[in-house]
Amino acid sequence: MPPLVSIRDFRVAFGGVPVLRGVDLALGKGEALGLVGESGSGKSVTWLAALGLLPRHAQVSGSVRLEGREILGAPAAELDHVRGGRVAMIFQDPASALNPVLTIRKQLCEALALHRDLQGNAVKAEARRLLDLVGIPDAGRRLEAYPHEFSGGQVQRIMIAMALAGNPDLLIADEPTTALDATIQAQILELLSTVRRELGMAMVLISHDLGVVAENCDRVAVMYAGRIVEEAPSNQLFADPVHPYAQGLIGALPPLDGPRRRLTAIPGTVPDPAKMPDGCAFAPRCTLAAEPCRLAAPTLAAIANDRSVACIRAEASRRALLGIAAE
Amino acid sequence: MGRYFAIRIGRAALTIVLVVTFAFVVLRLSGDPALMILGPEAPPEVLAAFRKAWGLDDPIWFQYLDYFGAIAKGELGRSMRDGRPAIELVLERIPATLALTLPAFAFKVALGVPAGIYAALHRGSGIDRAVMMMAVAGFTVPSFVLALLLVLVFAVQLGWLPSGGQDSWRHAILPIATLSLGGAAVLARFTRSAMLEVLGQPYIRTASAKGVPWRKVVTSHALPNAAIPTVTILGFMVGTLIAGAVVVESVFSWPGVGRLLVVAVANRDLAVVQCILLLVAMTMVTSNLIVDFLYGFLDPRLRAKGAHA
Question: Measuring CA to CA, which residue among B274, B252, B247, B279 is closest to residue B262?
């Protein structure tokens, strides 16, 4: 059985400057995958490009298959069917994600009319049911309201309702809680995991918040400078990160238990996409970098059954983490 | 909502009073109508009699109060040249002006708005660059230069169209073309930037992400938003329907309100100038009110603010 989504050697460039530099990623049905990394590492671009949502001047190459069927470069009508119908997406800033001059009913029913075989009153009834489902009180009356009449958290709930309208197999949540208050964040994440469980929908949670990803995802992929550098089941990645960048990210988190320790920061900054180093993009910041690291970019290779990492110093890195002296 | 419009209407009335006052004072300080109409050779006693007859020898504040008193009674004064009521002179010129400005307005909208939308949707394409080049040209070339250019080509060189007068519909073509081209350029530029701004908004991406076909994203998501800033400039254009053709009417000797204004100013025919300015101020202010009302209609966010204002 093919995976739900499989992305192969996916590359995106803007005006000749590469921002995605060969991404390989697969996602099973009903699976929750976390995608973490700094801003500009390509987390959002991966999915915007896969769904053909980037501006026309973006150069995209590679392969994106949905249940074995190539959707990259598919005709517009087929893509319109995939978007919202098979793969839905919600975004970071709820305040500007809904059209300010259209009522919630119009925007919600538009999605229903596109992807569901519903007529007349059934459309409105379904819209009301979806608002109920995502926890908007007094759904019948609120359908006639405009986006500015809702709070940020409520708009994100409406976005989720709209994403669910097409009964998608996959929901891409692109930093869905970054713009929200901490208490609202927790509610939205709770809602996402509830609907996902109930509907058996797969989810990609894009975030730079490792905690959010750890709690909500089965598996995590870490991105750095347009590539995936490590992929592992969540618990394993957080307990035992192998890539020096993943170690750096997790080392920068305060531990909840155990003795207090100094948080470590990763030295240096992300390289400019226009001036990528020849070898491993992380080498200039890496404490373990050796000469071969600067020559060729490492490829993502399996180190265990369900783990892979793109680092030629993976073994040394693991030893360093476990405190075993290098031979 | 009611209070919102009460404030707007109060402000509009104030604007009209200010315009009329300004015109009243400037006209009286900038030359003696008696000398302009009777000529410098007229005997002093004739000039004095003329001034007395029109109340020009009264103090200016007295004339001003008198003028507003008359307006309150619905009298806008008489022309000093032929003694006819100023309003009559102006009203009989309005159809001629509207015969130019109304079709020109329609052409501006019909040319400018689609060109702007097309350019925005095909940003960076050859057509976008061509539209923008024409828009900049139309924006920067003054209307009298464009008018003369059109006359030179179509009347003098090709001999297809008359260069002035009002005898047939053919006489209206060049003045309408002059008015339309400049306005269409302004409108195209404005519509294009409004569209580009809207197309970059996250809710456009949301619409695409939920599978709305691009054509519908443009018509039902982008256009209603881009209409909001575009209405502002359209309102301004409606405001110039009465007196927006001063230069063009003069160049093409078209007997409209604009040319009447030029002649009346030159002659210091006070009542006529004041009457035209009052009309212009009123159309401007009315179209602004309509725009405010349309904002409320187009943008639900303003509707809410208006309700609470």
Answer: B247
- In the structure encoding, which two tokens stand for residue B146, read together? 């464009």
Given a cut of 60, whether residue B306 has pLDDT beyond it is no
Q: Which of A57, A83, A102 minimises the CB distance to B211? A: A83
CA distance A132 to A124: 12
Element (H, E) at A106: helix A104-115
The single-letter DSSP state of residue B308 is H
Q: Which residues of B touch A149 (CB under 8 A)?
A: 304
Cβ of A114 and B210 within 8 Å?
Answer: yes
B210 touches chain A (CB under 8 A): yes
pLDDT value at A43 more than 60: yes
Determine the residue of chain B that is closest to A172 in CA distance. Answer: B209
Once rounded to an integer, what is the mean pLDDT over residues B65-76? 84
Measure the CA–CA gap between B41 and B31, rounded to whole angstroms: 16
B170 near A CB under 8 A = no
ipTM of the modeled complex:
0.88
Distance between CA atoms of B271 and B78, rounded to whole angstroms?
6
Please give the residue of chain A at the shortest CA–CA distance from B121: A56
Across residues A267-286, what is the average pLDDT? Answer: 84
Between strands A307-309 and A227-233, the pairing is antiparallel
DSSP B256: S
Contact B210 A84 (CB under 8 A): yes
Mean pLDDT across chain A = 88
* Cβ-nearest to A114 among B124, B211, B298: B211
Interface A-B, measured as beta-carbon pairs within 8 A, has a size of: 83
Check: CB of residue A160 under 8 Å from CB of residue A135.
Answer: no
Q: What's the mean pLDDT in A95-101?
A: 91
pLDDT at A327 exceeding the cut of 60? no
| Best CA proximity match to B179, nearest among B95, B97, B302 | B97
The model's pTM: 0.83
